[in-house]
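ok so for the tutorial part 2 we go from a plain amino acid sequence to predicted structure tokens. step 1 is just haveing the sequence, like this:
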Amino acid sequence: MKLGIVGLPNVGKSTIFNVMTHNKAQTNNYMFSTLEPNVGIVEVPDKRVDFLSQLYDTDKTTYATIEFVDIPGLVRGSNKGEGVGNKFLSSIQQVDALCHVVRCFDDDDLMHVDGSVDPVRDVETINLELIFSDIEMIERRIERTKKASKSGDKSYLPILKFYEDLNEHLLEGKMAKSFHVENAEQEALLNELFLITVKPVLYVANVDEDGLSTDNDYTKALEDLAEHEGSEVIKVCAKFEEDLSSLTKEEREEFLSDMGINETGLERLIKKSYKLLDLMSFLTAGKKEVRAWTIKNNTTAPKAAGKIHSDFERGFIRAEVFSYDDIKRLGSYNAVKEKGLVRSEGKSYIFKEGDIVLFRFNV
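step 2 — the prediction. this is what the tokens look like for a chain of 363 residues:
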């Protein structure tokens, strides 16, 4: 699964991306310092994996991952070629959700592309560019559908009407995610368009260190905007996270403990992103490997088995499942089994967050 990091230039996108991915995306105090999309794989922090790895004294530990794409800063007019141009909008179309970084602090030494800090205006600038990109795509689809309908095939007429209504919605400056679909057929039409503004969004308020403990007017404005559209906001201080990343794991844990913080802002961001994509993890555990496997919520046992190998899904017999909470409480797999807490589940079983499983299959 991919998550695209978007925002104006100089809002902290590349700094956040670098700390999360240990990458070397370019960061400078000038516009368009990032000229190519940067891609990095990020491990999803998971204390369950840590616990099981110690319990089983495993040879290998593998965390769930998300792919992040750092999209070069967009500006007003990007859809018409302004700034770095619109070629990067296609990169956004390939991701599953958006992580929108918004600057929420003042700093006279750090220039702003529009001359001042205004989170609501900045969000609207990015959203309009994304809407314009979607309009361009929809209008091309309308033209093709009009040509097809001239053959006399009336089945194209309701499709054309849907596209035209959606285009009118976008032309009013509204996101595609707020467009009302009336039935499953329209929902399928919307999904096959891969519009940018239909993707879920997580707003990242990049604050200074004071802003971590107290909401300023900027973060309050961003939170009001996000609440109105049904999105979430998470606060991160990119500079603070960058400083933390220079410490060893032990130094970082000690420092956070002294501050009374359980996890870094970026760890929370990664977890929030995982949930934004409607993902969950099931676990496999043993001496050879402890691993978190990524699946969509409401995935059945055979489909989950297929994440490990297609043979597991094709030859699925049953899944032997027990809870992470049970093994943590009781301290061993044998104790869980003795208590009768290992269940045998069939093809209709829907996996739950934190299930630990052994698949039985035959091919």
